[in-house]
Amino acid sequence: MNSRIKEHPILGKIEKGRRVTFSHDGNIIEGFEGEPISAALKAAGVMVHRHTQKYGAPRGIFCAIGRCTDCVMVVDGKPNIRTCITPLAEGMIVETQYGVSAKSTNKAEGMA
Amino acid sequence: MKRYDLIVVGAGPAGLSAAVEAAKYGLKVVVFDENANPGGQLFKQVHKFFGSKEHKAKIRGFRIGSQLLEEANNLGVEVVLNATVAGLFQDKEITVRIKDSIQHYKGDAILVATGAAENMVPFKGWTLPGVIGAGAAQTMMNLHGVVPGQKILMLGSGNVGLVVSYQLLQAGCEVVALVDAAPKIGGYGVHAAKLARTGVPFYLSHTIIKAEGTDCVTGVTIAEVDKTWKTIPGTAKSLAVDTICLAVGLSPMAQLLKMAGCIMEDNPKKGGQVPVCNAYGETSLRGVFVAGDVSGVEEASSAMIEGRIAGIAAAEYLGYIDKAVLTEVAEALESALSSLRQGMFAVENRGKNIEKTDEGYVVSQHLLKKGYFQDAEVEKYPGVTRQPGVHAVIECSQNIPCNPCQDACPRHCIKIGDKITSLPVVDETANCSGCGMCVAACSGQAIFLVNEGYEAGYASITIPYEFLPLPGEGDRGWALDRGGSKVCAAEVVKVQTAPVFDHTSLLTIKVPVAMAMKARFFKEDNCHA
Q1: Longest Cα–Cα distance in chain A
Q2: Nearest CA in chain A to B466
């Protein structure tokens, strides 16, 4: 599945920054510098950004403009980062968020 | 604490217009916006706007955004981005979050143009990844060049739902269904018609029962609703989609005004809780103004005019101009604004069942339920005539504020008159040259050129076309009717693109003459492509 629009009938070629790599839950993914992290994840086919604290329900992009906070993830170790408005940078470490932290941290600290 | 003559909150169409107007009169203006890019929603609007020349009609939204920004920059307006205004206080002080700190500013006048937020509707599975706002779809595809999904269900048939559905098609997605619980399409018939002719099915009086999927959306169940909005047993149907878009209205984001102590009112016609304000947009707090969706949900064209009025009013409030100047300038702007607020989609007509146009033409119920006219209906409208030789066929049947077609025709074949909401009339005595300017100028893509005498037994039809790949001359395929069904084989005989058409290509297809008033879209035959 390719989610990137190659050429748009009205906008023409969509201008992007330089190609960068970042990691998502340990996998190396390519994206474009400066685009929202969520755009790069979407282009890579990632739908689930986090699981809720109480029910573990999956959440992803919802408003795409930084209002709803459904798309928050752990970015470079910092939780609750709104991926739809945070620009992607080379080498970023992006992790699925469980409750308010990355799963690996939960296990290490023995949290539920 | 920094001080400005005018602090504007929100760099969308209303905020920027206000800033530009105030700066023209010499005010020192700053605009704060929480987004990384200015322009509000304008830069996501790839369609041509309605209205008239003075409302920037037939210009695409994102270009209007660029023009406004350039004007603001030229006038020395300071635009601060990634700056969230978190507080507004009675003495016209604001607190702004910039990066990880809170900063404090004082304005002698304040203009709040924070716009509106999307409404949502909950159903089983609505929190699954793949259920998104229509605005999110627009942001992802038109700003970031990433489609939200491949197979989409759109909930909501207002103009946002219709326009975003069309944009999804332009981005290469399939719109599997357009669903609305209301019994009639809420947005402009012309927006619905351009979807219907590509084959998008409309499900009016339907609602979503549930989104299917465990980790993300893999399908959706919809069902018919009765007059009391209850689902009718046995009507449930499942559709394979990966994305559900919600376009179910907007609510003003008036929190800052409420916080400052402005007198508020609950006004469903304005979209919810809004500040009480006068004709210039001044709230119950002297020197605190509002413009755009925050004072009542409308659209960008009226937001820009409201912004300009409030910007001038702020200049008068601070003594930069006399009351007489304000009265004079505002009067002209208000008349432009009121022309946009007429017709069947005017605020006071919301929720009303309008059966006839101002001229007395019956409104097509088929258009309101299915998104397109029945063949017999279309010929009764004044824009639809049969003439020898090439001529414009204007399938415009509702009183909407829009008149670029009248100005577009160099031969004056099309008449709307002074009242911008009147239906366009094709003057049969004028001589159409077939230039196609009207086809490209119609923001609703409702104008076609028909020539029933193209060649023996064949007619030519020129249609507006805004998709990729653009078919080439000599390509063969299918002509689709207004409902998107294949009606006959068709050949592309001419493809015109020109800067003046602004990315609307004119595709001329040849069809058997009996199809001249039926065929309205072209689909390439994939076997040949």
Answers
A1: 52
A2: A9
